């Protein structure tokens, strides 16, 4: 509904990128997010199997992976 051309800007990013993606996300479908991953092989990809768009913080795996990033 509201296109955001992330793929156009991804090549310009030089800092590390981490994407937390829920497999059940209906806002940014998994398949769409996966296309971004393919454009940036160095991207740190964290997949939350039962995650949706706005509930990732409810999953323990999310917090464990976030802690790894921040340490």
What's the short story on this structure?
The protein contains three helices and two strands. The protein is of the alpha+beta class and 71 residues long. The longest helix is centred in the last third of the chain and has 11 residues, at 60-70.
Describe the protein in words.
The chain is of the alpha+beta class and 71 residues long. 37% of the residues lie in helices and 14% in strands. It has helices spanning 6-10, 30-39, 60-70; strands at 18-22, 44-48. It has a two-stranded parallel ribbon with strand order 1-2. The longest helix is centred in the C-terminal third of the chain and has 11 residues, at 60-70. The radius of gyration is 13 Å and the shape is globular.
What topology emerges from the helices and strands here?
Blueprint: H1 6-10, E1 18-22, H2 30-39, E2 44-48, H3 60-70
Parallel strand pairs: 1-2
């Amino acid at each position: 509904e509201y296109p955001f051309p992330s793929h156009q800007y991804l090549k310009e990013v030089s800092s590390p990128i981490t994407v937390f993606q829920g497999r059940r996300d209906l806002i940014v479908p998994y398949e769409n997010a996966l296309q971004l991953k393919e454009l940036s092989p160095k991207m740190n990809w964290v997949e939350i199997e039962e995650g949706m768009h706005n509930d990732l913080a409810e999953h323990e795996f999310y917090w464990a992976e976030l802690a790894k990033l921040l340490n």
